[in-house]
Amino acid sequence: MRLAFLHSCFLSQTIDSMKIPTLALLFSLAAAAAPAQIMTEASPGYRALDRLRSQPARAGHVSEIEDETDRAWRINAATGWDSLYMDRGVNVLGNGNGLYWWAIDLELEVWEGGTVTPGVWYGVGSHWDHAQPKQAYKEWQVFVDFTQTFGNFSISTGWEYVYVPMEFEAENEIYVGLAYDWSFGQVTITPSTTWFYSLGPEKGTPGGAITGGASYWLFGLDADIPLARNGTICLAPWTAYGLNFNYNERGGDPLVGKEGRPFIGGNNLEFGVAVPIQFSRWFSAGPYVAYSYQWQNLGAGAGSRTGLTAESTWWTGVSANFQF
Prior knowledge:
There is one protein chain. By secondary structure, this protein is mainly beta. About 0% of the residues lie in helices and about 50% in strands. It has a twelve-stranded antiparallel barrel with strand order 1-4-5-6-7-8-10-11-12-13-15-16. A two-stranded antiparallel sheet has the order 2-3. A hairpin with a 2-residue loop joins β4 (about 100-110) and β5. Mean pLDDT is about 75; it is low at about 1-40 and about 50-65.
C-alpha cells in the first residue's frame, strides 16, 4: 500500500473543516486536492473511491446532499474491485488477476483544518503465483495520516505498514505531500506532489522486500468536473508521473529466476478517469478506467504470467464507500 493525495467533488459544508487530501486517485493514481483524504496506493480502486468520498464541497457545485451533523469524527467503510493490481506502475499480480479489497478508517478533527486518520486496508488477489495458481494473494495495510489545510493549500504526512503473509514480507514507509486547488467556475484543478520513503526492513534481510533507503516521488494533476447541477455526479480525470529512486526494479523475471536491478529515473506515466456518484449522504460509488505507460522494463510480481509489466497497460474497477 502507498499513500498519497486525493480529492472528490462533493459533500457538505460541515465536512469542509474535517477533510483533507491524500493521494491521487487510481494509480497508484496520484492527484489531490486541498482538503484531503487517505489513499492507498496499493489499490487503484481504493484511490478511485476516495474521489467519491467526503472531500469539502467546492464553491460553485456544492452537493445538495449535505451532512447536517456537526462532529469532529467520521467513519469510512469501503470495498471495491480492480481488474489489475497496479502499484506504482507495476502490474503486481499479472494480467487477468484482479484484486478485491475492504477498508475502514476513522477521521478525527484535532483542531481547525487539522485531521488525523488511522485506518486498515485488506486486499485479496484472484491469483498468487504460477506454482500455486489456486492460492490467493493477500495483503494487509495499516496507516496513519495527518493533514493540515490552509485555505486552498494542504500538506499531509503519515506512516504506513504493509504486510504480505504469503511471502512473510513487510514494509514501513513514511510520506509527505502537498496539494493546491484552483477553481475555474464549477471546475476544480489540483496539482499535487507526494514523496515516499521506505524505512525497511531492507531487501535481503528477514521479511525485507525493498532496497534500503529507497524512495518514490509522485507528481499528479487531476480535475473535478460536475455533470449534475447539485454536484452529485462528477467526471474526475487525472494524470500522474512517478520518479523512482531504487524502489522499483527493472529487468527482473521471476518466471526464469532473473533478479531485477534497482534504478533511478522516470518510472511511468498514467492517465485515468472516474465517474463518482453520490447517492446519499452516507453512500457513494462509481467506476473508473486507467492507463499506464512504462519505459523501464519494470518487473512484476510472482503472479505475472510473463514476469514483467507490459509497456502499455489498461485496467478498470469499481468501488463503494459507506460513511457514518
